[in-house]
Amino acid sequence: MKKVAFVFPGQGAQYVGMGEELVEKYEIASKVFDEASDSIGYDMKKLCFSSTEDELKKTENTQPSILTTSFAIYKVLEEKGFKPHAVAGLSLGEYSALVASGAIDFKESVKIVQKRGKFMQEEVPEGIGGMAAILGLSNEKVIEACDNSREHGVVEPANFNCPKQLVIAGEIEAVKKAGELCKEYGAKKVVMLPVSAPFHTSLLKGAGEKLAKELDGININKLSIPLVANYDAKFLESHNDIKEKLIKQVSNPVKWEESINNMINNGINVFVQVGPGNALTKFIKKVSKEVSVLNVENISSLEKTISILENINSFEKTINISEEIA
């Protein structure tokens, strides 16, 4: 039997026009965008469909816009009768996964991620922090490069995306030095990323503390779909753990590769990226060549994915994770 996970993208997946085709065709998607606009007080359709790249990449805009687009696409799939066996999201995408699982109300989550983006950007002044993707080098050697660059400032692993692709982050000079060492150690490529905040490092601990106060004010419901958390790459055992793991996620590395392997080990063999772009499908292909990967971000990819999902017997029952991890 095929078992399907829906996975949701994080910051960096955004582009002007994301979600527009689906909003034009599906009322349920349009309604999600309207709800987001009501929640945060500005026109989400205008932001996503006709703003500039610069406006969209402001962190406090990026995070609610990707969440809204991803959840709108999820609602279209749900309306068509598809419910996954498990969900996960990379960084910001974890909020999309939580909303899809029923743990957090969508309108509340839009407000939270807008503030999350603001807290993360403000915690380290622009120009102080940075991130770099290291390609073609083992995790151990990248970590060693970080350790050997600390005299230049804070630099730490931030995203364990897939085999031989790790993102580092921290103070810009330390990040650059670690990148140079990675090249010396044999990295195929080092790419400085177009972000100014050192996401998922200890430098953002203060942002996590501010986020904690915001999360105190929202209700967390039991999950209707099993979810793998970024912080420890484990299935959540209780909805009571959600707030703590979201807070820790801000200043700790995202264990995406380990999360995917955990789902595979629990029987997932089809992954659908729900949201803009296809970065997660590329990561998952590198984690395992044995699983199928799909994505939905527009009409053509929706139709292709629906056609494939309709031909597999995958949505009859969800994985009973609670028994497997007991």
UniProtKB/TrEMBL annotation:
SUPFAM superfamilies: FabD/lysophospholipase-like, Probable ACP-binding domain of malonyl-CoA ACP transacylase
Enzyme Commission number: 2.3.1.39
Residue ranges the record marks as coiled coil: none
A family per Pfam: Acyl_transf_1
Keywords: Acyltransferase, Transferase
Domain called Malonyl-CoA:ACP transacylase (MAT): residue spans: 7-306
GO biological process, one term: fatty acid biosynthetic process
Membrane-traversing stretches: none
GO CC terms: cytosol
The keyword Acyltransferase is assigned to this record: yes
Gene Ontology molecular function: [acyl-carrier-protein] S-malonyltransferase activity
Entries under InterPro entries matching the protein: Ac_transferase_dom_sf (IPR001227), Acyl_transferase_dom (IPR014043), Acyl_Trfase/lysoPLipase (IPR016035), Mal-CoA-ACP_Trans/PKS_FabD (IPR050858), Malonyl_CoA-ACP_transAc (IPR024925), Malonyl_CoA-ACP_transAc_FabD (IPR004410), Malonyl_transacylase_ACP-bd (IPR016036)
Catalysed reactions, semicolon-separated: holo-[ACP] + malonyl-CoA = malonyl-[ACP] + CoA
Family: Belongs to the fabD family.
Name of the featured protein: Malonyl CoA-acyl carrier protein transacylase
Protein source organism: Helicovermis profundi
